[in-house]
Design goal:
Largest sheet: none
Strand content: under 5%
Structural class: mainly alpha
Oligomer: single chain
Shape: globular
Order of helices and strands: HHHHHH
Length: about 150
């Protein structure tokens, strides 16, 4: 049974999923009115930066030390590139395939990559081995992708 705290975490994750579903459509609409798709991404990151600055000001975590940042692995800087890749592909693909098809395919890709990351403990994650249940879950999601595409 899930604890109330874990239920809250899952509810917040579901809200993040709702936001992820809204983001490509919102960015595409902005890009349509701006005259070029790239502006949807630019505004996405500009508004996101402002929002993160507000969050940072609210939590007041202090300024990171250059030594700490320099001691981290090179790939930790790639998060923004991953976000730009997601937003750019969403701007290009959502108008062509629709939000549901894009997000269903993206989620299946996320699950496959996440299982590999977990299984091998890549990028500093704790090892969580691939199981029959996890593979079955991804297979069901893949089946859902097919059904969504045909619908």
């Amino acid at each position: 049974m899930l604890s109330p705290q874990n239920l809250l975490y899952l509810a917040l994750a579901l809200l993040a999923g709702v936001a992820t579903a809204l983001q490509p459509a919102i960015n595409a609409k902005f890009a349509q009115h701006a005259g070029a798709k790239v502006y949807g991404g630019v505004i996405n990151f500009a508004v996101g930066l402002l929002a993160m600055l507000v969050v940072t000001a609210a939590f007041r975590p202090g300024v990171p030390r250059a030594e700490s940042l320099g001691a981290g692995p090179w790939w930790m800087w790639a998060g923004g590139l991953c976000g730009a890749f997601f937003v750019t592909l969403a701007l290009v693909l959502v108008p062509k395939v629709g939000a549901a098809n894009y997000l269903a395919a993206m989620i299946v890709g996320q699950l496959i990559a996440s299982m590999v990351l977990d299984h091998y403990g890549l990028l500093g994650l704790a090892v969580r081995e691939i199981s029959v249940q996890r593979v079955a879950g991804v297979a069901l999601m893949l089946g859902g992708l097919v059904l969504i595409k045909r619908g």
